[in-house]
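Hello again,

I reread your note about wanting to compare the complex against the isolated chains. To keep things tidy I'm splitting this into two emails, and this first one only covers the full assembly. Below are the input lines as submitted, including protein chains and any nucleic acid or small-molecule components. They are followed by the predicted structure of everything together. The single-chain runs will come separately.
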Amino acid sequence: MGLIDHIRNLLKGLGIAGKHLGRHAITIQYPEERMEMPERSRGIVVLLSDKETGELNCTACELCMRACPTAAIKIVTHRDENKKKHLDVFEVDNGLCCFCGLCEEACNFSALKMATKYEFSTLGADELVWDVNKLQEVGRDVDYVDTRKKKKPKPEPKADAKPTAPKPEKTDAKPKPEQPATVSEPVNPAGSSTEEKVNEEPLPEEQERKEEKKEGGPTDGSV
Amino acid sequence: MSCTVIAFGELHGIFAWLHELPVSIGLPDSVQAVVMYAALGVTVFSVLSLFALFLVWWERKIAAHIQQRFGPMRVGWHGWYQTVMDALKLLQKEDIRIETRDKVVFFWAPVVCFVAAFLAYVVMPFGKGLIVADLNIGILYIMAVTTFTVIALLMAGWGSNNKYALLGGMRSAAQVVSYEIPMVVSLLTIIIYVGSLSMVDIVESQSGWFFNWFIFRVPFGPIAFVTYIIAAIAEANRTPFDIPEAEQELVAGYNIEYSGMKFAMFFLAEFVNMFTVSAIAATVFLGGWNGPFLPSWVWFMGKTLTVVLLLMLVRWTYPRLRVDQLMEFAWKFLVPVTFANLILAGVLKYLGYWE
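Full-complex prediction:
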């Protein structure tokens, strides 16, 4: 009896293999056809642009740089005469990136996202370091939910009502109309704004120190 | 030389022209025979090499589709000449020869393996009249020369001066010697009903429809077929019994130190061996070239490739046996079963079951 059972089981296995032989392959031929990536999959880090103006959403707050565990993000900023920060350099070294998504979580301004794109193979390691223009170009067609406080439609009445301090800044920083509102508004109702404040306050002294602090940054910022 | 080229079957036109060619040129008789046999040898060799390349590609496709992949897809339609390109690549590759090798043995092992794989085709009836030489000891000759492979594998294992290679060669020797017995005895079950060892006689005695094939006609034919297929898989060193080259245990087995064309020779010989055992199964059990409507060589190829497909399915379904399981299976199960089969079939033949 045992022998017959064994033979039957062997034949059953053979039958299953034969059944699979008739099925269609579940793999895809990569360059010709591409996988539909899940919406929330984490791919290349891109910089997002404003949907209307096309400007970068980035406010140079450097939270992503501090959040990055592998120091793949490098940001250099300067302050203008109004103490408004401007982005000089924003580089992502894709060779260092570990696709953890912490930068995306840290960002309060919908400025940065891990897109579903995944193709960035190059011939050399140095070509993996993408500057701000490249990141913006790649991020152009990336769809995202704008979680920023909608200052754009509201500001007009508000800006009128709220009189003094922010006004000069707004006129100066025309290309980025969002940032003055969030940065200079004394009370920001957003829950995460406290972090941003913590980061903003010690800054006026030195800018260089921040670059050195990159590693220790996240703990400083969050605690 | 008693063995001569006889009729030429459906491809008579081509072969007759080739046969007449040396005569019409006006070569002396002694040279004629040499030229003719050389031409036949080259033909069989090149056709079988192409077939081996095709089988490699086919095996990869079958394996891929069983695992729901595509397999080779890039080179040509569904990668059909992928293996040709692989062979060309292997031809150009460096032939790495380790310092500590046994020079003569290391060099000759792939040659012996390759030649032994092709020797069986001297008596293989590809179709009606499509046979190089109809030896009257055909099947015995095949059994004898296919065993050369084990010598080649042992030579490769010894000549490499590598413990894994030697283990692979030794395992191969133990395995092939063990499975040779059930294989031959399974074939004997058929041969006692034919009364001849000649391959042509074997095929011609099962002419007619499929119920004349020996697998259905001879008592215990199906059992003999199954035991033959199992032993044949072991003979060809294929997966349920591929312990000579078990990747997980022996890295690559006997061919571990070989590279370039020498490796390709082992590789192609393996597939030619697979084709050989399938062709024997088709000839002895499945009626060989017999079949209606289509040319005889189409029937032969169709039956052989069906058996090859079965071997491939088996390879990609079952896991590898352990060495002791392999030996136990051969000596404690296959040998008794085949011998009992043979004795019962012989008794039935003696009692007048046949004609």
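For quick reference: The longest strand of chain A covers residues 85-93.

B.
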